[in-house]
Amino acid sequence: MPDLPPLPAIRVFEAVARHGNLTRAAAELNMTQSAVSYQVKLLEQHVGGPLFLRRARGVELTQRGRQIDPAVRQALADLTRSFRQAREAAGHVLAISTMQTIAGNWLAPRIGRFQLAHPELAVRIEISPRFTDFAGDGIDVAIRSGRGDWPGLACHRLFDQLFTPVASPAYLEREGRPDAPAALLDHVLIDPTDDWWGIWFRAAGVAQPLKIARPSVAVDTQQMAASVAMAGHGVALVTPRFEADCLASGKLVTLFDITAQAGSSYYLAYPEENRNLRKVKLFRDWVLAEAVNADPG
Known about the structure:
- The chain has 297 residues and is α+β, with helices and mostly antiparallel strands.
- The protein has helices spanning 7-19, 22-29, 33-47, 63-91, 100-117, 134-137, 169-175, 195-203, 222-230, 244-249, 278-293, and strands at residues 52-55, 58-61, 93-98, 122-127, 141-146, 153-167, 236-238, 253-254, 260-271.
- The chain starts with 6 loop residues before the first helix and ends with a helix.
C-alpha cells in the first residue's frame, strides 16, 4: 500500500490533533517531543504540506489537517474496536461504564445474578462521571442519565430519574419534621446548589427564587448526599429506587409524598455496531428485565 503513510506517524498526528499540543501528545505516547515533531514532519512530507500551525500555547490544524483528521480518528477507532472485540471475544469480558450512585446503589447488588446466569463472562465495571468513549476506553455498554438521544448509540430506557427529599430519624428528632415543603428552606439542605432542589421545590409549589436560611453541605454525588443524610447532618434529595434498602429499614425517611424529575431517565447505551455481540445482547436482556422487576421509585 504505497500511498499509506507510516502508521506511527498517523498515530502521532491523531494524538497531536486531539491535544492541540506536542508536549502532551508526546507524554501520552511515551515519546520525546522531538520524536513527535519528526513523525509530524514525515506525515507533512507525505501529504505535501503543513498539517499544523504552530501557536504560542500549542498547535492547531491547518485546512489540510482538518481535512484528514476525521478519517484518521475514525480509522484508528475502527482498528481499536476491531482488536478489542477480537481480544475480549477470547477473554469473555463485559466492560460496563456507569456513575458512582447507580453502580453502588443499583447495579452492584444485582450484578451477581447476571454472573450466576452467565458464568462464562467476566464483568468489569468502570466508574466515571464522564460519558465513555466506547472505542478508546474499551467499554461495551454504559448506563447513563440523559434523554437517550446520543448519536450512533443504541439506547434502551431503564427507568426515570426521580428524586424526593429524605432525612434520618435522628435529624428529624433533633430539628423537627417540616410540616410543608416551604418549611424545608429553614432546614440544613445537602447541596442546595444542585439544580434538583429548584426543580423539586417548583414541583412542590414553593415560590421562587428560593431563600435558604441555614448553611448547607456540599457534596459531589447523590450517594454521598444520602450518606451525609443518614449520618444526621441534613436533608438530601435522592432517587428512592437507589435508596430502597435504607428507606425500608428506616435509616432514611421520605418527608413528603412528592417526587420530581429533571426530564432525564437512566439508559443502557452501546454502539449500534455492537448490537449483535452476544455479551451485549445477554446484558441488555438481563438489565432491562431487572429494571422492569425492580421496585419503582
